[in-house]
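ok trying again, last paste got cut off:
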Amino acid sequence: MRKVVRIEGIPLTEGHSGLHLEVEDGIVKDGFYFALVPVRGFETLLIDKEAVVAPVITSRICGLCQVTHAIASARAVEAAAGIEVPKEAELLREVLGLAVRIYNNLLHQIVISEDLFPDRDERFSFIRRVQNVRKFTGELLESVGGEIIHSPNLRVGGISEPLEDFVKEKILSSIEEIEPLLLELKEEFNEGVERMWRREGLPETFGSHSLGFFATDKFYGKAFDFNRISFRYPQELFEGELKREVTNLYPFIDGLPVETGPRARKVLFDGYKPKGGVKELHLLRSQENVESLARIKEILENNSFNGELWNRTFPTSDGETVGVGVHEAPRGTNIHAVKLDKRGKITYYKIVVPTELNLMAVSEALKGVPATKVEFVVRAYDPCIVCAVH
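nice, full thing came through this time. structure:
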């Protein structure tokens, strides 16, 4: 028997979202994942604002993805204005982005820990130790960025405050203590995922799809041609009530839906051969934590940040040049595009976030999944819905 199932409010995810499922004999034959959060209109809000405030404003899109928006925004403005950023400032931005990656990935592990560790004592022991790592990354964000949540030191043109050597050495000393714990937590988390898959009777191919992958870099983010992106509106994809209810766009790369995030980065930059199911999203995200901490350590050990880290050139442009800023966020590739006029005011702003890109990947991954297990597919992508409807 074929029927339509609507689910609104997916638990253990960030933001209000929904599923539209066409189910036959208990198996999803077709499905769509979508946002139900009202659009805030950040892109419109930025019009005619001075470009220097773009990283400040966009970092308020989300309390989880704040630094990644500030980085992508600053880089977009710099690209439009032709501002050269000191190399050491870019490296410190990379450190900030990687700290946020670990901070967010570990929060996701806490959110889904009840799925992985049904035993309360085991779960709370895991969470307490995860929070010790997150405390370290919070202190790192404060030391480099100026605050844990928003980073006032992150400016158009670079970083406004140097990182003194004694602070850097303190961070490196903390990394020596945190590294073994993070490795231990990775193994514990991965075993929890494996046990859950066995307990739920899920195959390795659970939640697989045939889409391609998209990422620009393993750790930071590289230049990208914004013309490669196109969008489809809910009105093009849906019938009936969904035309009016769905609040997100669906971005496509080179005309095709893609998956972005930890698996995409692993496939495109480490030669990883994907198994296909969503279980490996959890495992690869856990691996990214370890690799991100190692990269932070490498950057801090091999560079000094005592000099001038801020190119204070006021950003202006011709009103036509599109500046594109890219950052590889926890959930995937985050892209900002901007045009500036000769006064330094914003005349155009567009944001494409990882969760937007992944909404179609989730939709494809739902096909062939038992209707009772669909939420496991959604959670594996760690969606950030408020970002998706910025």
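cool. The chain has 14 helices and twelve strands. Residues 12 and 111 are 6 Å apart (CA to CA).
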